[in-house]
Amino acid sequence: MYRFLLSRQWVLLTLLALVLIPVMIELGFWQFHRHQHRVAQNTLIADNLAADPAPVEDLTSPGHTVPRKDYWRRVSATGTFDAEHEVVVRRRTNAEDRVGFHVLTPLELRDGKVLLVNRGWVKAAADQKAFPKVPAPPAGEVTVVGRLMADETTAGSGIKDLKGLPPRQIMLINSKDLAESLGRQVLGGYVDLTTPEPKNGSPELIGSPDHDSIGPHMAYAVQWWLFAAGVPVGWWVMVRRERRDRESAAAAPAAEDVAAPA
């Protein structure tokens, strides 16, 4: 009755189905784990943004690698901006996806250490090699509050660290690299400034990270699992159809013999 399942065509089709089922199940779990990661990250961001600002030197120090649990943690620092050693970070976008620069200004703390502060976004000059127009930072001693971020790397950001850039322009914010050029003790990581807000809205402050959207990963996981469940159902439907077609084909000659005149 089902001997056709031993044919080459059906053996290959059955093997394909047996391969697809675990692959689709695994793809579903991959999307599910991405969903879990997104949910955990949203919780981390929300908790760190809601926490009271901590003194920055409680969470980082020269040469320190900021751990993931401290990403987006609100921190405070008091010091004096060093506009002379200010640099800009190339190919950065604002909330409207316009390409420009981020303004990175060293903040000299009371103990002589330096904190890198991302003061926000400015538009690019007509000539990409020219230093953009950047509003001066507040003069004198100032207390800043911002979100602690880890040093940027090519592996983590996907941004290639180009060499031979125009003076005072960089591709990645990396405290270790800038400590060498400054010749100072620079705290690990950097801070996205949130207060004080700049006069006239420039530089544009970096917006808070999204921590409400969970993305489509859970829906994709369910889809893959439904596909996995559908494979054996589809296989069985095809088997039944093949059996019915074969039975109909076998019955047709017999019907013709009965109908033929004696």
UniProtKB/TrEMBL annotation:
Keywords linked to the UniProt accession: Cell membrane, Membrane, Transmembrane, Transmembrane helix
Domain of life: Bacteria
Compartment(s) where it occurs, according to its Swiss-Prot or TrEMBL record: Cell membrane; Membrane
InterPro entries, per database record: Surf1/Shy1 (IPR002994), Surf1/Surf4 (IPR045214)
Membrane topology: Multi-pass membrane protein
Bilayer-crossing regions: none
Keyword Transmembrane helix: yes
Listed PANTHER family: SURFEIT LOCUS PROTEIN, SURFEIT LOCUS PROTEIN 1
Protein family per UniProt: Belongs to the SURF1 family.
Protein name, as recorded: SURF1-like protein
Species the sequence originates in: Streptomyces solicavernae
